[in-house]
Amino acid sequence: MSTLAAAPPRDAVTGDPAALRRAFGSFATGVTVVTVGGVSPRGMTANSFTSVSLDPALVLLCVGRDAVMNRVLAEADTFAVSVLGAGQEDVARHFADRSRPPGAAQFDAVDWLPGGAAAAPLIAGAAAHFECARWRTYDGGDHTIHVGRVLALDALPDREPLVFHGGRFRRLAPAPRGGRP
């Protein structure tokens, strides 16, 4: 019979933010750009995105509580998520740059297309697009968890995704011949 060790005191985990960031960075994630349309459209790079449910179709993303996008998402009825493809590092860096222009001008530097269901910009060449209606929000510590109900989607199944791991953008290794590891 095994016993579980007691959880470490809180200070042991949060006392070293750099160690915590490195440990979180050991989990590879996809890279997305979250967008909201309207009179002052906004985009933001996010790698905290995942599927939640198939029925209903739900996705979630986590946004820093102090981020401008957190306020924008709280006020929007709809939003979109573009899952970036390999080779779109420049797009990810652009929407992570806090000095980019505000409003529609921030989309001048990238190829995009108008979303139909969410009326939010979609990043051209992305591996997938999800257009969502705001469904729920939850407290997530220093982040807010935004859950969206998928209204429309499209995906390019042969498009390799952009991956973030260990603080760097990466590409997936090609599959060995024969399709097995």
Automatic annotation (TrEMBL):
<dbReference type="GO" id="GO:0016491">
    <property type="term" value="F:oxidoreductase activity"/>
</dbReference>
<keyword id="KW-0560">Oxidoreductase</keyword>
<dbReference type="Pfam" id="PF01613">
    <property type="entry name" value="Flavin_Reduct"/>
</dbReference>
<feature type="domain" description="Flavin reductase like">
    <location>
        <begin position="24"/>
        <end position="171"/>
    </location>
</feature>
<protein>
    <submittedName>
        <fullName>Flavin reductase family protein</fullName>
        <ecNumber>1.-.-.-</ecNumber>
    </submittedName>
</protein>
<dbReference type="InterPro" id="IPR002563">
    <property type="entry name" value="Flavin_Rdtase-like_dom"/>
</dbReference>
<dbReference type="InterPro" id="IPR012349">
    <property type="entry name" value="Split_barrel_FMN-bd"/>
</dbReference>
<dbReference type="InterPro" id="IPR050268">
    <property type="entry name" value="NADH-dep_flavin_reductase"/>
</dbReference>
